[in-house]
Specification:
With 144 residues, the protein is α+β, with helices and mostly antiparallel strands. The protein has 2 domains: 37 residues; 98 residues, Immunoglobulin-like (Sandwich). Strands 1-3-6-5 form a 4-stranded antiparallel sheet, with no helix packed on it. A 4-stranded mixed sheet has the order 2-8-7-4, with no helix packed on it.
Length: 144
């Protein structure tokens, strides 16, 4: 009987302790969340005029090209390692030479317009020395 009472007490304290510990988790303050959102690995390195470009309406099978213009806001040359589209219907091209501090570069994306309807395509960009990938978006609509 004593063993049963000891086991029941132990089980109660384990469950209570676990529930109490879960209720004590720390949550981020609004200021911490705002600071985390502001802190991007691209801050202080590269500044894009727009990260989403709307090309409007394109005609079926008439390729459309958009430009994502950017400025190197860092103190050292900026090198684009790669720009990868989300699918084969989009072809990126970019400034291959290092972009010097204060200078500008461009990433172009050509969409083949082979499908009718709304368009939302992504180009994933990797910069030398920055482990995170930047996403650029081209949106619009294809009609006959």
């Amino acid at each position: 009987m004593k063993k049963l009472l000891v086991l029941a007490s132990a089980a109660f304290f384990i469950c209570y302790g676990t529930a109490f510990a879960q209720g004590q988790s720390k949550s981020a303050t609004k200021d911490q969340v705002k600071e985390a959102v502001k802190k991007s690995p691209f801050d202080g390195t590269v500044k894009f005029e727009k990260e989403t470009v709307d090309f409007g309406t394109a005609r079926l099978n008439k390729p459309v090209t958009v430009e994502f213009n950017f400025t190197n806001v860092s103190e050292k040359p900026l090198i684009i390692q790669n720009a990868q589209p989300s699918c084969g219907c989009t072809t990126p091209d970019w400034t291959k030479a290092p972009v010097l501090p204060g200078k500008s570069g461009v990433i172009k994306a050509t969409y083949n317009s082979a499908v009718l309807g709304p368009v939302n395509k992504t180009v994933f960009v990797n910069f030398e020395g920055i482990p995170q990938t930047l996403e650029l978006h081209l949106i619009g609509k294809v009609e006959k």
